[in-house]
Amino acid sequence: MQPAIEIRDLEKTYSDGKRALKGVSFDVPRGQIFGLLGPNGAGKSTLINILAGLVNKTGGTARIWGFDIDADRRNAKRAIGIVPQEILFDAFFTPFEALEIQAGLYAVPKAERRSMEILRALRLEDKAHAYARTLSGGMKRRLLIGKALVHNPPILILDEPTAGVDIELRQQLWSYVRQLHAAGTTVVLTTHYLEEAEQLCDRIAIINNGEVVANDETHALLASAQEKCLIVTVDRDLDSPPAGLPAEKVEMKGTRQLILTYNRSVLTAGELLQAISATGLGVVDVSTREADLEDIFLHLTQQRAA
To answer: Where is the ABC transporter domain positioned along the sequence (predicted)?
Structure first.
């Protein structure tokens, strides 16, 4: 099946010489929630703005739903809905009017417009005819999602959609996104909340300094992490961690708990426990913690920066 978005050797160099994208290539499979992650300044916004037609690429190609963004710009734009990170809205229009105007810009016939249906789904029906400037920040963000959906695009890009919103609204937004995904919409998500990406995304690409440093299914990305933590409770109080343990890092939590970080390709938990016993300490309790997406993200971005 053809990818929802196909990006090949995409480059962008700005007039001041800054290379924001350095030959980025990846596919967004159809029907998935795809995470696009990276630190500030990594090139995520530049990439999204190129897909949106707001920034001209320097080199490479990009296809949206099979349409080249240069050769078939109109159809490429119709295949995508973008929810920007910034809250942009028309203060003197009502939410209903804002959706109707947006639908008109996409040449959606009046008989096919779904403005009230979208507002109802986003829990904005009771605000349909209030001025948009009277809406709360969370309501404005939901309205942006509604504007991105008026032409019923098969792909929805969400750029930091839950930045600065409370937990309850975040859960509401993701509940609606899951509904869209279940109905067949391909979703591309950028977020600073790594636990959010870990829970929601089928696949994740990580961009750093304009390059793709990882691109894999979420579970495979997590499984590839070699770093692991062993949390050991010993039988007596300690003033400092025992010397000579083969772990990469040894920390203390309280006076009796050791947190040992080790590379599982080099060392096993059993070998580490033997080393602790060799110091004369008795082991009272043991637990482990696998690397999460935050660990992987920090490792990949710091490694490339170094």
So the answer is: 5-234
